[in-house]
Structures are given as structure tokens and as C-alpha cells.
Amino acid sequence: MPTLASLRNLAKLTWLEIKIFAREPMGLIGSVAIPVGIFVVLGRTVGSRLGDMTSGVASQLRVGLPVFAAIFIAINTVLSLIAIIAIYREGGILKRLRATPLSPITILVAHVLVKLVFTAITVTVMVLAGRRYYPAGADVPLVSFTLALLLSTWSILSLGFIIASLVRTARFAPPLGSLILYSMLPFCGLFRPIDDFPAGLQMVSRALPLTPAVSLLSGIWQGNSWSAHLDDVAALVAVFAVCTLIASRVFRWE
Amino acid sequence: MSGPPVIRVSGIRKTYGKTVAVDDVSFEVPGGQIFGLIGPNGAGKTTTMECVEGLRRPDRGQIEVFGLDPIKDAHALQRRLGVQLQEAHLQKRIKVWEAIDLWASLFDASVDTDAMLDQLGLSEKRNAWFMTLSGGQKQRLFIALALINDPELVFLDELTTGLDPQARHTIWDLVRDIPNRGKTVFLTTHLMEEAERLCDHVAIIDHGRIIDHDTPAGLVARHCPERSVIVSTTHPDAAAQFDALSSVDTVTTVQDQLTLRGHGNNLVTETIHCLSEHGMRVTAFRTEEPTLEDVFLTLTGRSVRE
After folding, report:
1. CA atoms of B183 and B149, how far apart (whole Å)
2. How many CB pairs under 8 A join A and B?
């Protein structure tokens, strides 16, 4: 029964890693408190003025801000994964775990699950905390939005594994990750619709893994059905497949 | 040698880019003993050991552990091996009991965690985070993890590097006890004293090649047969009398201290006999035995620490 045993090991390791992560104050602050804090502060600043604005701008903010915050959570999650993998590799922890009956996949999947659990917690806290600033968002599809964010994060985490493989030292992994991920932000349709870009840039934009994530998250936040976003879902799955394939070739355990 | 060899390594070679880490290394590890692969840092000890553990694939050569291939038969071997890796760590904030619990569960081992912690002197550290342990405590935990599945063969890579002497002695006592439970230990060390105190059998590796192997006493007898006796006396005839002894090769005198170099098992007896025969008044007397350190120096022309 190797599969049952490996599932049990996965559950055990995931739970252990959740506990270990929760013991690290900086990790919790970075991945939960800061995104929620930024969202609440921004929401407070602009939320109270939403009523005075023209409906176009107001609706853009109502959608744009939560999606921006969600993307911020996703990027934060991926950066946190990159940092952990780099630290675990540098400290020989990955190597130590690998020299046990744990399969390599189990070790990495446990980390993905830990990250997704904290993503779900963060987005839930964020939406609940921000509810009062978004009168229009009172009937936000929280479950669907959370699922959309989990799917987006899961997809981008695979890119994180490639970045974690490219960097040799734990010190440079997070900065390089930030550079790669944040530099995608202006081109993924978060601030300006992609259709407004010049043709060449549009091609680049559509190839970025953040683009379908932004499209899916804004659609779901506005109440669209999942069936209207099958192309985004397919794109995110494709990003995951391609990145995982590359990561499995370049990933380094030590 | 008791029984068939547990590990059989023949002609392995491993390169990293242009660096040849291990070249044409062959040796056998007999069962129920402590076998040491000894040599300076960078000699190829860890690479060799990690090939035997199945963590690295040699470019060339054959390895058998219990007659099985460490890479192909990794799954079958896993439960029979216990591994401690050099410079490996655990998660900073994992608790001691959590690590033992995780390992026990991974190996399907039913271990009395409390008894094990007690035996290794870690009971008080049960709930401590890994990062708060001292170097010696960390290594004791790693020994616990390596022994958790009751393995037949235990790998210990540079177990006491960086530990203070007291912690080192505690670890030595633990390691010495392992073969008593019918297990075989394969260890690496660059500390010749450690090898001498622990190992039944050693292979000396330098620049990726095994330069000799035997029991520590056998290596010393073969490569460094000379012994020294150092005597402090004011007797005027001492140097001349000692020089006449058949097992003494040279006598050097520095003030009242005479150093007699010679070889053979009679050197000390003859010296003592000579002292009493001539009624010499002696204020200090000691013998110097060559060590593995001297063997390494003789074989390579340099100290193991260089």
C-alpha cells in the first residue's frame, strides 16, 4: 500500500510544516498581516469616497482593489515558498528529508499545501475585514473567489519552483523572485486592460502567468460564473504544467 | 573478519565537472564492526559515503550493500539503513519530539520516544526547537534519527566535527555501543584520534584514492614501527649506556632529557632493565607510541590538518 502510506506521510509532513511556519513571527506577519493590513488601509482611504465618484471609477476600484490585494497575496505566497525552499536547501534540510522514505514529490507538495492553506486563511480574513468598506462587496462570492485565488497561486507556485532552482543562495532568492514577479504586475491587465497595449506588448501580456489569474479573479469577484472563465482556468493549468515540467528538470536538492 | 562483507565497493569514480572527487576507490566493510573512512577534508570521504547510501550515482564502478544496488534497490534497502548526513539540519523550529515522531512514522517504526530521548540525554529538550539545541545535542538527535528504524547498517558522516571535547566523548560512547546491538557502522572522520578510538578497521583516503586500509594497530605497526622512550636523568653515562642497547637506534640529548628512538617490542623493557642495572636516578619517564596521525604523515608526507 505505498499510496496510502505516502498520503499519510504527506498529511503528517504538511501538518508539521504548518505548525513550524506558524511559529515564525516574520512569516505570519509577511504572509497574513501585511496583505490584510494594506487592503484595509487602502480600502479605508478610497472606500469612503466610492460613493462620490463616477460609477465607472467606483466600480473599477471595487473590483480592482480586491483583485490587486489577491494578486499581492499570491505573489507573497510564492515569494515565501521561494525563500523556504532556498533556506531548506542551503541548510541541508531538503537533503536530510530526501534521505528518508519520503518521496521527493511528497516533500514539495507538502510545501505547496502549506502555502495554499495560508493563502486561503489570508484571503478569507482580508475579505471579511474589508467587508465594511465595500458596500457593493457585501455579497462577494467568498468561496469562489478563494478557490480562484488558490488556483492562481497554485499555478504561480510552479514558477516559484523554477526561480528557487535558479538561485544558489537563500539570500538572493527572495529579491530575484520579487523582481521577476513584481515586474509582471504592470503588464497583466491589473491596472490597464490588455487591449489598450500595443500589439507586441499584448502578446507578451497574454503569455504572462499572472494575466489569466487577474482575469479570473476580477471575473469571479464581479459574480461571473466559472464557465465564463474556462480559458483562464485552462491557461493557469497550462502554466502549471509547463513550469512543473521545467522545474522537475532544473530543481536542485542541495 | 566476521561473516561476508556488508558493503562491497569496487572501482568507483565520481567527478564534479573537472574535479575528480573519487577515483578508483575499492573497499569492503565487514559486518558487526565500526569501519572508518578517514582522511583530510576534501579527500572524497563524503562523496564515497553518499554513493554507498544511494544519494549519489558514481560515474563508474560497482557498489553492493547487503548484496543489493543502493540506487536500484533503494526501496528495499531503506529500512535496513540508518543515515546521518554531514552538514544537514532540520527545520529551525521543529521540536525534538516532532522530529522523532515524524521519522518514526516515515519508517513505520514503533519507537518508545521517551526511552530513546532518555538514552540520548535529550529528555529535557523534548519540546525544544531544533535551532535552540547545542551542537552536541543536535548530533545526538541525528544519531537518534539514524537509529530509529533499528537499521542493520548505520552511516555517520563527520559526526563530531565542530563539537567540544566533552560533547565528543559523549558521542563516542554512544557510537561505540552500536555494534553491541549487532549493527555495522560506516563512519567518516578527519579526526585521527576519533578513528583510533572507535574504528575496528580503517581505510585512509587522500585526493580521492584509498592509500591503505587495515586495523588502526596494523597500519601503525606497518608504517610507523618506531617507538620512543623519553627519560630525564642526570646520570653521566646514560647516553652511552642507552646507545649500546640493541633495540635503540638513536639517542638525542637535550639538557637532562634523553629521547631514545627505536623499534620492536623490546625497546621499553630493555630501557627499564638498563636503568635499574646502572642504578640511574630518573625524574621522568614516558613512552611515545605512533598514531594514525603519524601513519598519515608517513604515507602522504603531510599532516592531516593541512
Report:
1. 12
2. 54
